[in-house]
Amino acid sequence: MKVKYICLGIVVATLLAACSRDEESLFDQSAAERALAALENANKVLTAPENGWEMLYFANPESRGYNMIVKFDANGRVTATAKNSATTGNKIMTDESTWEVKNDYGPILTFETYNEVLHAWADPGTDGDGLLGDYEFLILHATADNIKLKGKKHGAYCYLYPLTESIAPEAYFAEVEAVNKRLFANNNLLTWVSGDKTYLLSGGQTGVFSLIEPGELLNSEDLEIYPFAVNRSGVQLSFPIRDNEDVWYSMGSELLTAANSSIGAGELSKYFFDYMNIVACGWAIDIKELCPTIQTLFSTADEEIKKTYNNKKKGGITEMKFYSAQDGSFVLNFSYIGSGTKASTYYYLYTMQRSNDRVKIAYSGPNDENSQKVLAALPAIEPLLKGLEGDFKLSGNDALNPTVGLLLTDNSNPALWVKFTGSGQ
């Protein structure tokens, strides 16, 4: 029995000794030493990239993100370059000042002396608030791959990514603007998918997504908002959507993808209706590129208008655009120039039905008395309106933004097709 207890005592003593050594390895540095190590790491990471950092700056938790190029040197100098509508008047601006990483219950990045590019966000302005931005940031994460900051006063998250190549500011901001235009031209509507959750994201052109749940409308009260920034390769959310952890979405040919979720246009036939019903934007027919069948009808109607008003140079059809009406019907705005120089618009009703990946469009007739009078005076218009009927399959020029070009091809007659562009309003 004594031998048994002796052996047990040896085991317990060994385990206690092991725990003691683990605790010593965890706490072998004082708080001051750990703080110093964090400061040294931050300084080393910030000054490492030869070409500086791309900074996606969010002034406060409700504002859109903006792009800057910042470069830190080991002598405490920082150069910042920006181009935006909020602080630089859409002109490229560069300024140099000083920076430092300090300890305040953790490493703090501060831009000490005034920098016209960086401090403009925190200037009080004439109203005492200004843009509610920060120039001091808690460093939450700092590695060679990325840095995550949090504004010390207003609490917005900002993100830095190393520039892997030398690029002139003019070229950098041109590329960012091109991506922004590609993704959000014409008030593009996007779908966010994570597991079994699906929501619509609107407002991309403002830099702040509005989250729309199934059945909600864009003008619903208390929509959740998610500010974001665009760079040359994707979209950076300021903070994640709902309980998801993703904030960076890499841009592919068809989707913006993250670890646990994705953002894209979704099914085109559903997008076709959501764009009209939820965002209240219209689909404009490309009247400069029509299939031969519709082109013949268009030319006949256009020529009749010019002859009737004896205005061959300025007269003719200027626009054909579909909208969703408040009563659930669909209206074609038909605009042409007659005797004056401004276009007059008349309204014609259509029915539209979604069937799998297709949209059925059928002409119903004039919406009001004035539109009926136009058909009586210009009878060649109605065959054109009826020529837009069909059971159409949809395809897009850009899977990420169907509004830049949507092709509708009749399912039974491929020679009959119509091209649409999102109206953006």
Query: What is the number of helical segments per DSSP (H or I, 4+ residues)?
Result: 7
Radius of gyration in whole Å, from Cα?
A: 30 Å
What's the overall geometry? elongated
Q: Report mean pLDDT, rounded to a whole number.
A: 91
Give me the side-by-side strand order of the main sheet. Answer: 1-2-3-4-5-6-7-8
**Percentage of β-strand residues:** 35-45%
- Kindly give the count of domains: 3
Report the count of strand segments: 24
Name some characteristics of this structure.
single chain; 425 residues; alpha+beta; Lipocalin; 3 domains; eight-stranded antiparallel beta barrel; 7 helices; 24 strands; 36% strand; disordered N terminus
Structural commentary:
- By secondary structure, this protein is an alpha+beta fold.
- The chain has three domains: 123 residues, Lipocalin; 90 residues; 140 residues, no CATH class.
- It has seven helices and 24 strands.
- It has an eight-stranded antiparallel beta barrel.
- Strand 6 and strand 7 form a beta hairpin.
- The chain is elongated, with a radius of gyration of 30 Å.
- The termini are far apart.
- The N terminus is likely disordered.
Give the helices and strands, then pairings.
Elements: H1 2-26, H2 31-47, E1 53-58, E2 65-72, E3 77-82, E4 93-103, E5 107-111, E6 136-142, E7 147-151, E8 157-162, H3 169-184, E9 190-194, E10 197-202, E11 208-212, E12 224-231, E13 234-237, E14 248-251, E15 256-257, E16 262-264, H4 268-277, E17 283-285, H5 292-309, E18 316-324, E19 330-337, E20 343-355, E21 358-366, H6 369-377, H7 381-386, E22 390-396, E23 406-410, E24 417-422
Antiparallel strand pairs: 1-2, 1-8, 2-3, 3-4, 4-5, 5-6, 6-7, 7-8, 9-10, 9-16, 10-11, 11-12, 12-13, 13-14, 14-15, 15-16, 17-18, 17-24, 18-19, 19-20, 20-21, 21-22, 22-23, 23-24
